[in-house]
């Protein structure tokens, strides 16, 4: 009889082994499904960006690779808080044969537009003055092959060459090439693999331990009967391979369902196509094979005691105490992570890989340090407490710290992940804000001098046609400079009347500031005898008009610091400004109408506002919150399941001991209290440590993004509290398990 036949026979006759095998298969299936899903996220972002390359959101022209056939511009527009990608094109005279991107049915002519289905529905549902007049007559619909996500709003609008914005590119064809994955989601997917795979494998290990004592006795008996170490190893490998292999196949089968659910999770403003989650076959095969191999390898390595000394494999041996040097694993891993983070900030490539390796080492160090901490907690119980339940719990933690820590391993990693996330998120949220100098509801369009006057005239005409009283104005830009080129320094300044500054900016000016003649307003009082006006940083500088006053104003927002407002009357005659911003105020009732009035003459130049800038920030933060919540829920569920299974396994491992204690008259409630103490108190100590390490890792990861200080929130305590709660919830299975032991004859063992 070969090893596989023996494994199948054991599964048929032993109900506990079947239960362990089923739970092991489920754990492997969960691990395989999660890794397959997380591994596909970078490829999914690359697929969606590949479809959207022609939209030119990340396109910067470096000159044409062929004869110029088209004038091309890409910008962002908005409607009711939703982003619209606007692509404006114009064929050059005599150009023909422009290859169309996938999903684009035709090239629109002047005054025509091709829109995505979602944008087409919006055009039909709203008056032309609010939206449709920005683009032109719809003549076609963009297919899914040309959209980043199904609900994306995109407009491909045709013009004549002279109507294109000044920053338009001269190109031979639409932007193309090979897209890159989203770096943020790629980083999050790697972090997810690290912090979710380990709890999944802990669940597998806990499931395998359900019958550990019985299997050790069975294997020791077979070994004493004459089986060679190789035969025993083959039997365990066959038994583990059977359950792990079925679990891996099951994980592969459920992965399409997981990807289907993931396609409904928004990222960067939209959901996904089902085809986005396509993983290369080679990587799929590697993952499906690698996880069962790890499980089988762990099972085989656990046979050392049976193979070496089968006669005492089931408890007739003296367990060695754990050495203090285990504590060195955590600082060593932390030092590696610190070096990796420091190196990554100065490295152009490969730095993130080292950071992820350091994160793996930190996660792995928990398995080395955790048992020592558990043993130390058990020793404290034995020395201090004298209640029966505390003594039983302390002796268990002292005698088998590795087995006792197994119930807390998943919880420790979940707390580590939660603390790391709750360190990063409040800090990212504190970074929100900023934007241009104009008030939140003011729209602005950047333009040069000739285009600015045209946009102002046409926008005001459109506003009058729509029955609006608002007016667009052109705000010039100059520099207050000191010194000579190339050692010149100074400040940016907006050229606008004081009345317009009160109405249109967020500098905090009031009508009281507008008395007393031409002035320069800023957050500090400059000496105009030392500063002059220049239309560009290296241009000729001229002095202000005589009688110009300088007034310091307290700015309400720190990001405005260093920007000044200059009354046009303070500029000397002959100053020809080159850069302008056309601005127009809005109200809640006419916001989209004013945007339409500006978008038409802007012809593809982006119409922005501070309100929309802040909304975009909140969209990005919302993506991070959503991914974090999903990850923490998954980690918490896995941790709770592994704690429950580990607690049940602990009871099954000690059926003889508990049966004897019950036969001697020990109440079940005392034993249940001891088991709960075994689970909760080591979890409390370990989770506090995991929370501290998670905060430090979060600080290290944040330093890769920004050198400013971290923001610590009281919510950092939540993972520790929830971790202990999950440990107690998992330990709640001990009472039913003990009652089952009480109901079964002790002679069965």
TrEMBL record:
One of its GO terms (cellular component) is plasma membrane. The keyword Transcription regulation does not apply. It is found in: Cell membrane. Residues 192-309, 632-739 form the ABC3 transporter permease C-terminal domain. The chain crosses the membrane at residues 21-44, 187-211, 232-257, 277-303, 324-344, 356-382, 403-425, 629-652, 679-704, 716-738. The keyword Zinc-finger does not apply. Its main location: membrane. InterPro entries: ABC3_permease_C, Macrolide_Exporter_MacB. GO terms for molecular function: transmembrane transporter activity. It is a multi-pass membrane protein. Keywords: Cell membrane, Membrane, Transmembrane, Transmembrane helix. Pfam families: FtsX (PF02687). Belongs to the ABC-4 integral membrane protein family. This is ABC transporter permease. It comes from Amycolatopsis balhimycina DSM 5908. The lineage of its organism: Bacteria, Bacillati, Actinomycetota, Actinomycetes, Pseudonocardiales.
